[in-house]
Amino acid sequence: MNINDLIASYNKKKEEYGKEAYRHISNLLREAKLQHKKDFQGDDHEQSWRAFKGKNLEKLIEFIITDEVRTLGLEVMNGNSLERTNGKNLSKELGLVKRNLLVDYGEFGSHLPDVDIIIYRPKTGKVIAVLSSKVTLRERIAQTGYWKIKLASDEVTKHIKVYFVTPDEDGTLAVKKPTKKGRAIVEVDLDGSYVLSETNIEESGKVKMFDKFIDDLKKLIK
Questions:
Q1: 35-49 as b/e, with b when 16 or more CB fall inside 10 Å?
Q2: Which residues contact residue 122 at a Cβ distance below 8 angstroms, ignoring those fewer than 6 apart?
Q3: Is the pTM of this model over 0.90?
């Protein structure tokens, strides 16, 4: 079981559900977990699955959005690839992206924010938006809010939009009121969140179903 298996499963969902395929990500992950368990050799399958699911959800979302993002003249990359690569080994394009995303900690150096997906202009390396993705909000939402505040506090990075993409399996974003803590963080501290769930949520200016993402990106770059 690897990312290619998940992509193949997603493509089958796309054949079945078309543009609504994104709503079936949680179902896809449940099916993948059964296969992962069959293939697993070890003591703690749950821990292994959680690590696999987290790492590959971001790759799956990257796959889902890449073609449409490229039609807008933008490029997509995985955030980890900047973290792992020594500056000397980066192409000029990615070197610019890295420089345009660094957070300045003064005497403690400059560091990249923890983000899963970066959307940028390939000619200039200007970062348009960064995405974090997790199955539930509790795993990363406050950290994502922190990075938004850090990026917004610097002239070089204050234009970068920070989004959270999630199947929201614990329903944190489902209703506006009473507002759960995770939704409050999205509404106040982030630029938005996009939800890949079968059930509709109460949408707002910042919390929307995932099918609105590309349209919002189009508006952003205009």
A1: ebeeebeeeeeeeeb
A2: 73, 74, 75, 93
A3: yes
